[in-house]
Amino acid sequence: MGEVCESEIDCSKTARPAEAARYFLSGEEDWVRKTTGEKIKHHKLRGEWAELRFMAMAAEHGLQVTKPWGEMARYDFAVEYAGQFWRVQVKSTMFVDRGGYSCTVRGCRGPYVGDAFDFVAAYLIPEDLWYIIPAEKFRGQGSIALYPRLKKSKYGEFKEAWHLLREARVGMIQACVEGALSTQQSAFS
């Protein structure tokens, strides 16, 4: 089990989410500010903090949030609204680059491949701002550039786009397997 340093945040030990939550919600006035994450030096702790922020914001937007058990899922959360589920990967950044923010949207082995998740929720910590971006908009890329102050930016339409997590899937495939069942039944007779 990991541990959280009592006196400083830039510890090199990995913390468990519950320990991180206890630390961040301990009542210290410093940690109540919107830009709390900027003080968290250890990237794992900062990522856990961003996930807690995501859960709170999703709940404020009327979404149910489920965390998969263990570390093997290719997404961080399943978000449900009216019986519709979306897989969400949470990312956060403080890295300013050319007037915007660079946000890594890759795993430890490179850009995400295949159908790992449906949306990325990218949190710009200094701005206290979320982007809810469909995965197909950046598939195969290692990072994306987010420009919250530009009126016409590539991902501008996804700024605070929580409504996307409340929309129904388009193009759901439904099939009838009646013929297949009779074929399988005769195979077992």
Mind telling me the C-alpha Rg? 20 Å
Average pLDDT rating: 79
Strand order in the sheet with the most strands? 1-2-3-8-9
Distance between the termini: 53 Å
CATH topology: Trna Endonuclease, Chain: A, domain 1
Please indicate the count of domains. Answer: 1
- Helix tally equals 3
Largest sheet: 5 strands, mixed
Question: TL;DR?
Answer:
By secondary structure, this protein is α+β, with helices and mostly antiparallel strands. It contains three helices and ten strands.
Core attributes:
10 strands, alpha+beta, 3 helices, disordered N terminus, Trna Endonuclease, Chain: A, domain 1, five-stranded mixed sheet, about 190 residues
Description:
The chain is an alpha+beta fold. The chain has three helices and ten strands, in the order ααββββββββββα. The chain has helices at residues 17-24, 43-60, 178-187; strands at 64-66, 77-81, 84-93, 96-97, 100-104, 106-107, 110-111, 119-124, 129-134, 143-146. β2 (77-81) and β3 form a beta hairpin. The longest helix has 18 residues, at 43-60. The radius of gyration is 20 Å and the shape is globular. The N and C termini lie far apart (53 Å).
Topology, pairings included?
Layout: H1 17-24, H2 43-60, E1 64-66, E2 77-81, E3 84-93, E4 96-97, E5 100-104, E6 106-107, E7 110-111, E8 119-124, E9 129-134, E10 143-146, H3 178-187
Helix pairs in contact: 1-2
